[in-house]
Every structure is written in structure tokens, then in C-alpha cells.
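Weekly structure sync, notes
Attendees: PL (lead), two postdocs, one rotation student
Agenda item 3: pending single-chain targets
PL asked that the sequence for the first pending target be pasted directly into the notes so everyone works from the same version. It is reproduced below exactly as submitted, 174 residues in total.
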Amino acid sequence: MDSLTPLFFKRRSIRKFTTEPISEAHIKELQRAALCAPTSKNCKSWEFVFVDNKETIKALSESKESGAQFLEGAPLAIVVLADTQKTDVWVEDTAIAATFIQLQAEALGLGSCWAQMRLRGTTNTPATDTIKQLIGAPSNLEVECVIGIGHKDQQRSEYTDEKLPWQQIHINKY
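Predicted structure, written out during the meeting:
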């Protein structure tokens, strides 16, 4: 492989999925990608819960007021968490891992979308509390996001050089 740029250009947020399940081989590749993600001081603060239970996925989709409903249609949801006692940069660690997962999904021909959960929720309950209860996570873990993954049931145009906001690149100074 000479460049990852074609993969970057192709990966777009997909919120509509077919009902086709994700193969065990694809799930294993997604797990490998997650576990290859770098962490601060190699502390491996992240943890991942792969969910294919429809009822649990539906409950995850309802854990915040808006922006997570698409999860209900995903055959796979990946909860990305971290042990906040291992590092103070767990947000960065989980964000990198989530990105690795999404790029691997695209490389496998799957669609994905990130649902932000940290600092979100319903009027009465933070999403992280709801999610941790749903998946049985211990109190020292914090939820960053849930990634919905599935076979694409929508097409999005790829990025092109012309569509990129080049004005946001600065050299040597702002």
C-alpha cells in the first residue's frame, strides 16, 4: 500500500445500514484495529464492548436525546471506553482508537458513524451512566462514544482535493 489517502477520501459517516449481519472475520478485523491504536505511554487505557444484541443496540440508540438514533439500524455497535485511572488523556486515546475502527470498517467495505456519548445524555441521566449500566461496565471506566457499523444502505460522495478546505492549512505561522 503506497498511501492511505484513498481510504481517507472514501470514508464518510454512514447512518443507514442493511440488515445483513457483520461476519465474524470482519468483527475480528475491527477488534484488531482497535487493539492496534496507540495510547499515551502505551498504557492501553481503552476498552471495547462489541454489541450485536438488537435490544441492547436499541437501548444504546436511546441513551441520549439526539444524534444516536441511527444506531438502532446498525447490526453492530462498538462502545469505546477508557479506564480514567490509567491516564488523564483517555479522551485522546479513545478518539484515536475510534478512528482506527472507522478506517478499518471502511477498508472492509462497511459503513460506520460515531455517536458522541461523553458529556451527552437525556434530561435526567448522562449517556455514560445509561451505557455503563446496559453493558455492565465498572465505575472506573468512562464512555467516549458508540460506533455504529454495518453494510451500507446509503452512498455518500467521496472527498476530492477540490472539496477539501485548504484555507485551513497554515505553514510556519497562522
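Discussion points:
- The CA atoms of residues 6 and 22 lie 23 Å apart.
- The mean pLDDT is 96.
Action: rotation student to compare against the earlier draft before next sync.
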